[in-house]
Every structure is written in C-alpha cells, then in structure tokens.
C-alpha cells in the first residue's frame, strides 16, 4: 500500500507568544424592508451600535416582558449605504494587503434573505464587494502584469516561473486550440448583467504597488454543497445519454501547512472583464432554489479565491528572476455563506430539507470553532478546535491560526418575522469580535536595487532618442536599418568577365575596407556613447539611490507616524466606546438614584406619620394611666372606708349580742346562786353588767381611715389598644367559726374569690369567742 509508505505530516512549528494580534473585524449591514407596512425590529442607534426590539405579541420570557438588546460592531451600515461606501470601509484594505503579499478572508453571514449575495455580488450598476475588489486589483497592477504562462500553478498550491521560451510555447499551444471553430453556444462572452457592474467614476486604484515586480492573477471558484466540495470552473465533458454527476474534490495540506482544494481549476486572468467572465461561468453552475422565504436561496457556500503571484525583476529590470523562492503568493477568499433557516418557516422537504440541515450544521460548526478559539485565548486553555467537523472551517483554519486578516459582514433583515433568527446571528457576531487573529508578517525585502524597471525603460527611451538623432534603427525598425545601410559607401560591380581582370577585386577590397573603417568608427562612437550613457546611468542611479534612501527614511518615519495615528485612533475609538458605555451606566445609575430618592421620601413621610401616631398614642396612654390611677385610688379609698364601716358595724353588732348573752348568763348564774344560797347560805347581790362602750371602736376606725393600707398593682396594654390594671395586693376579711369544721383547700388552686368568704355573704355566727376571729389576708 502506498498510503502506508507515506510519512506523517510534520507538525507545524509553534509560533512565538509575542505575536501581535488583531480582533476579527465584524461589520453589520441592514437591508431595507420589503414594504412600508412591515414591522421593523432593528434600529440603528449610531455608526457602531444597533438595537433589537421585540415585535408585538412576542413573549420571550416567562414574565411576558422582553428587554431591548444592543450590539456593537466595528461599523454599522444603514439602509442608505451604497456599495462603494461598503467596499471602501470593508474590502479596500484587504486588496492593499493582497498586493503586499498578505492573505485575507472576507465572508458574509446572516439568515436567508438578508442580502448576503447582493452584498458580495451586487447588481448591474451597483457592483458588490467581489467585482469592486477585482476592479481595484487590476487597476493597480495593470501596467506591471507579466505575460501569460510566465507564472504557472504547480498543482500543489504553489506557483512556478517559466522562461520566455516555455511561456511562448504555452501561448502558441493555447492559440492553436482556440483556432478550432466553436459553436455559438460555447462562445464565451461577458454576461450583460455583469457588463456594467461598476461605473468608471467609482474606480479605485492603489498607488503603493512595487513597480520592480511582475504580477499575475489566478482565480478559482468552488462551492461546498452538503459538506462536499465541487469545482464550479471545471470543464467536464457533457454526455447527453449518460450524464455524470460532478466529482467532489478533497482538501490537502501543502508544504507550508496551508489547506487547499486538490485538483481545483485555477484560471489566469488579465483584466476585470475576463475575471467577471470566469466568475459568471461558475455562478451559473451554483446551486440555488426557491423557498418560502427567498426566491433565489443559495443552497451551498461559495468560495471565490483571488490568488496573486508576484516575482521581482532581475538586476537589469528586463526579465523576471527564475527563482521559485523569490515568488510570493497571496490570496483573498471571498465567501458567500448560505443563510441559516428554520424548516418550519421554509417548509422544506426532501432534498431541500437535507440541504437546510447541512447548511445549519456547518454554521453550527463555525460557531463552535469560534467559541473554542475565544475560550482558549481568554482562559488560557488548550482545547482542540474542531476544524475538521466541517469543510468550511477545515478550509479556512489557516486564517484563524494567523495566516491572514479575517473580516465578516453580518447582513440583517429588520423585519419582525426574522427576529429570533436575527437574535442568534447577533450573539454569534458579538462572540466572533472577541476572537483575535495573529497579524500577518510583512514579506522579506528583495536585495536588489529598487527602481530597476524605471532605469531599464529610461535606458530604452534614451537609446531610441539617440538612434533617432543619428538616423539609426530604433527598436530594430527595418526601415531605419535600411537607411543606415544605404549611408555606407556603395559596393562596386563585382562581376569578373576576364580572368586577367586585376581592377575589380582591388576596387571591391578598397570599398569594403572603407566600409569597415566606417563601421569601426561607428562602433567606437557607439561604445563611447554607451559608456557615457552607462556613466550617466550610474550617476543617475547613485542620485536615485540617495533620494531613494531619503525617501525610504521618510516613508519609515511616515509609517511610524501612521502607526502612532492608528494607535491613537484605536485608543480614541476604545475611549469613545468606553465613554458611551459609562454614559449609559450613568443614565441607569441616575434613574436608579431617582427611584431610591423617591422611595426614601415616601419612607420618610411614612416614618413621620407613624411617629406622629406614636406620639398621639403615647400621650393618650399617659392620659389613660393618669385617669386609671385616679380611678384606682378613688375606688381603693372608697372600698377601704366601706370595709372599715362594715367591720365596725359587725363588731358592734357581735359585741351587743355577746353582751346580751353575757347578761343572760349572769342572770342565769344569779338564779343558780340564789338557789344555792337558799339551800346553803346567803347569796351575794347581783351586779349589773356595763354595756360596752363604742369609744374604742371609733378610735380604731379613725386610725384606720387615717392610715389606710396601700394597695399595689400593674398597668398593661390590652389587645384592643386600651389599658388594664392588675392588683397585686388585695385585703379581704374572713369570719371563722371556731365550732365549725375546717375546710380543705383544693390543690393547685390560687387564693381567689372562690376560697375567700366575704363578710357580706356569710351569716352571723352566735358563738364567737373573741374579736380575733377577723383575719386579714394579702394576695401576693
């Protein structure tokens, strides 16, 4: 097996970490609405910011509210932006970098029907990015192009240089093949739709072209359909009986580890019209279809590659150096990505459904690669980027690894039906801007003296002028050469009619010697003139070199100034963005502060009203306490007096009853004594008992009324907002019967009114031994 014998592809050397990087340039272009009555969901706020509004009736979150989102780009192009304005801001610098041997990638991205193909291709009179890029390229390098077949592709993504003879043979071979008569249908003509793409007034040209180099342009056109690569410029033989499907191409890696399409057709073009012709030839083969959302929807990703080969002239400035190492090749890829779409809106079925699935899958792979690149750059991780999951990302992996400048134009359709898809596109664009790509390095400077082409042309012009002054041939003109020959002495007749003729040959020899002397003088004069010319050229070259050195110094200084200006502009743009962000944050903080101040004022008012109510309640409470204290005091005095009065009255009543009983007992004793005396001796006369005086009771009542026993209690709030008094010191009177049995107290019961017998509720007891039966109990 040959495959087993192949060696492994050498690993790409790691790039140093101090390489300068630039973020991916992301631009946004808004297409006009189809009708005036359509609802718009995209608003252009500034030259770098757009805002998305949720359409009416759309609920994007659970609360039924939708926040307006803003997205920033390097620049935003509104609906009134012309194609020339878009080209000057987006693609013009890419053409300049292409001429300076730097690669570039420009692709359009967006949903279906957002204007990607129009942005890339354009229409008659309004050429897009692709035709304007070709026009600027040929306007810049037109006078310095090499002849056909001097540069030749080597089918390994490289360019070879042929000598003049081989290139001439190649041209003759092509001319002989084109001399065969062709049918009118196969005759290649520029399509009328692309004949007047660009107005002559809008032509662009780059002035910084190296005149000491020769250039040649090669173009190729491929499409990626269902994750397969097809060559749109391939001239496959057509068989009407058994038509064969086009053969897909494969991706390979060249010796510089760059990806390319193996076997892809590369056509050498010499003018803008010829490049249009080749482009339109491939455009007719591109797969498009009619869907519910777009009448001409691209069903594949198209890649139009412009490859520029350049090589320096030799020291004489006349021929190209036959050194392959001196050939510099740069390319610009113009990619028109197919639009993402939802099948429930396009109602795709069958092959259309399969195409939509492959398109969405390739775009999802592109998004995944961007996410991994951003994560590796921002977090310092080393995750593998899944380039090989899709042909699109695998083909352009070198650009994201630092082989050129990358720019993306996001096309937006502002109609409300595309709102959700546009939201996803905006998120992808926002993430892509955070990816940084290594800045391409400048090409090595050739060691030959600059200005070789000009010196060679000046030498030819001076030589032609000198020859004109002397009547000599100019640029090998046969008429002037004949005039120079006629200026020499005429040759005598050279016929010999007699063998003894000795005059013809000497006469001929004399004329030839004179002509020889004249030619020697002319040669000496020509050599002298050539030496003078060389000396003048050397002086001119030294002066030119000194001026070139001064000019180079000035250019280096100017380049440094340009870098400083570019850095300052970048810093100004960054500060402007930061200022806008801070202004936006300040507005939000001011609104938040106003809301907080309103809340503060309302809370202060509520606090003041509550304090007023509290003060009123405290004053009412104090008044209630004072009133309750007065009522308690009055009630206490009243009940103390009433209790004292009742106790005194009861004591007096009991004393009266006791006195009556004592009288009766004394009378009974007297009777008993009389009876005993009658039987035993004389009896003593009975004494009349004294009635108890009330003076002592009055004194005791006065003392008690004068010094009443103070009662104590607690004041507390009730649930209804009022106040209540709880007495902790209660004086009760209890009358005990010494003859009655004692009552048992219930366990766990307090000393309340149920255990206390009030004097008013108990009946009087006849037999009371003394007044000490009245006891006082205080409740704790």
Automatic annotation (TrEMBL):
Compartments where located: Cytoplasm, Cytoskeleton
Coiled coil: 558-627
Gene Ontology BP term (one): microtubule-based movement
Compositional bias segments (type: Polar residues): 177-187, 702-712
GO cellular component: kinesin complex; microtubule; nucleus
Region (Disordered): 1-21, 171-193, 673-780
Any GO molecular function: ATP hydrolysis activity
Gene3D superfamilies for this protein: Kinesin motor domain, Kinesin-like protein Kif23, Arf6-interacting domain
Amino acid composition bias (Basic and acidic residues), ranges on this chain: 685-700
Basic residues composition bias: residue spans: 1-15
Positions bound to ATP: 110-117
Pfam (any one): Kinesin
Keywords, comma-separated and alphabetical: ATP-binding, Coiled coil, Cytoplasm, Cytoskeleton, Microtubule, Motor protein, Nucleotide-binding
Domain Kinesin motor residues, every copy: 23-435
Family to which this protein belongs: Belongs to the TRAFAC class myosin-kinesin ATPase superfamily. Kinesin family.
PANTHER family according to UniProt: KINESIN-LIKE PROTEIN KIF23 (PTHR24115:SF600), KINESIN-RELATED (PTHR24115)
Protein name: Kinesin-like protein
